[in-house]
Design brief:
The chain is built from nine helices and 28 strands. It is of the alpha+beta class and about 500 residues long. Helix 8 (about 455-465) crosses helix 9 (about 480-495).
Length: about 500
């Protein structure tokens, strides 16, 4: 018996040594830090403000620091942030910053037990979720950030081996667009839906392939300036540190963008494009080259055109792109967010927008940005699946407190302080008007005229308890209702 125990102990000691050696060999064979493969690191506000630097005029804060595997983002009408966490099979809600400290006021799981949920879209009372093998939707209540019905899949049986992420968004003309990456590094796909961007109606009908030859277009968005659909694309691996370039493509219907036969500006791929048949050579010649090339292996993922009127003129209609960072370069590269600026002649200039995710010696990774979202006030949210964080980039210095930290007292006490109190109330009302995008309807469809002839401040505030459709009931507090009423009446008097 003692001999058996002795040999058993020796066996497990030897097995442990073998496994330890194998693990060390594997860790040294990959250029991405080992801690990323087991879930990344956790960051703090001090580390964020100490390491990360934003472009001039902006500052960065840690909006939420406990969101493991944070990927895609979307902003609710109420100002909350919805984030997908594919590795955990769930989608979470980060509560808006009501106390004005720059941080989310809390978080909760919206839905779980999904198949690697990635892309997110809010539209017309629905939350659309792109899982790795399907697209589903669920009714969503913006007023209190909860699901208001049953989750239902509208597209199923999508392949999810290889590049498994699916990203979804809606075009200006009301189609759902869906990207699907390739199953491999470079190969001929059996499933024609791989390495494409597809589209469908809002209920999943009329599903069709829109553009092909896109190896892994994780992010896409429509330019508010020219209306074009721009998509990032990750080039193939194992051609060295500097080939091929990653791409930004202007996507057009029924066009072919090169992969797997070519990369960049119609450069034949050494595996499938060189010495290819005349048919393939012609396919390469007819392919659409990128409108912009990123450095090789920078891994551009999310792209978002800035639309808020609150952005500085130089950034309004610019595109932010999250460079996730290289994983197989001898020297790491990427790991930052850049802004793309279009000149009048169509040329694109790249600038650094948020950096510090990579150490100066390019050895240590602190974060890997993924997706970008913008709220109505111009706050920019950036997810980081390595640090499990969501950052908020805002204009000016980091926010410590805002007006809503202490609600203004509407009761006037003296004539001396009446004007200052009214000014604060009007300012709060202006914030509510902007954050709920009221101008979207009231500038053109339902212009606000002659309010003072119809309402006092009190009766206008009371109106918000039961507004006339199509205006939704935003469930404002008493202070918010009176503040918005004061703002609308003062705004009318200044016109």
């Amino acid at each position: 018996m003692k001999k058996t125990l002795k040999y058993t102990l020796i066996f497990f000691i030897a097995l442990g040594a073998v496994l330890s050696t194998a693990l060390a060999t594997f860790k040294s064979s990959v250029s991405v830090p080992w801690r990323q493969l087991v879930g990344g690191i956790k960051t703090t506000e001090k580390e964020v403000t100490g390491r990360l630097t934003a472009a001039d005029g902006y500052s960065v804060q840690l909006f939420a620091g406990d969101v493991p595997g944070a990927r895609w983002l979307t902003v609710t009408r109420n100002g909350d942030i919805i984030v997908s966490q594919p590795k955990h099979g769930k989608v979470s809600l980060l509560l808006q910053d009501k106390d004005g400290d720059g941080r989310s006021d809390g978080q909760k799981t919206l839905i779980d037990n999904l198949q690697r949920p990635h892309g997110l879209l809010l539209h017309d009372g629905w939350l659309y979720i792109a899982e790795s093998d399907a697209v589903g939707r669920v009714p969503f209540d913006h007023s209190d950030g909860r699901l208001a019905g049953r989750y239902q899949r509208i597209i199923e049986n999508l392949e999810d081996n290889g590049h498994w992420t699916k990203t979804i968004d809606m075009s200006p003309d009301g189609w759902l667009f869906l990207s699907s990456g390739s199953s491999c590094n470079v190969c001929i796909e059996k499933d024609p839906r791989r390495a494409t961007i597809m589209r469908m109606k809002l209920n999943g009908d009329n599903f069709e392939i829109y553009a092909t030859g896109l190896r892994n277009s994780v992010g896409f968005d429509w330019s508010p300036k020219d209306g074009g659909l721009y998509a990032t694309d990750n080039g193939r691996d194992w051609l060295g540190d500097n080939l091929p370039p990653d791409e930004l493509n202007l996507i057009r219907k029924d066009q072919f963008y090169g992969w797997p036969y070519a990369y960049g500006d119609r450069v034949p791929d050494p595996d499938l494009g060189v010495d290819a048949s005349p048919e393939i050579q012609q396919k390469i010649a007819d392919s659409i080259p990128p409108v912009y090339e990123f450095r090789a292996h920078n891994a551009p993922l999310g792209i978002k055109f800035l639309r808020s009127v609150e952005q500085p003129k130089d950034y309004r209609h610019a595109a932010l792109v999250a460079l996730h960072g290289s994983w197989n370069r001898s020297v790491k590269d990427g790991y930052k967010v850049v802004s793309l600026h279009w000149s009048d002649d169509g040329k694109i200039q790249q600038r650094d927008f948020l950096w510090g995710f990579l150490s100066n010696d390019r050895q240590t990774v602190y974060g890997r940005p993924v997706a970008i979202a913008e709220d109505k006030l111009g706050n920019i949210y950036i997810s980081d699946d390595y640090a499990g964080a969501v950052y908020r980039v805002s204009q000016g210095a980091p926010r410590q407190a805002v007006l809503t930290t202490q609600q203004p007292q509407l009761q006037k006490t003296t004539t001396a302080n009446a004007l200052s109190i009214d000014a604060e109330v009007v300012q709060l009302g202006a914030q509510l008007y902007r954050s709920n995008d009221c101008a979207h309807c009231h500038q053109a469809q339902f212009p606000l005229r002659n309010l003072s002839a119809k309402y006092t401040a009190q009766t206008l505030a009371d109106y918000f308890d039961a507004p006339t459709p199509p205006m939704p009931n935003y469930n404002f507090t008493a202070v918010q209702k009176k503040a918005l009423a004061h703002y609308l009446l003062s705004r009318e008097s200044s016109l």
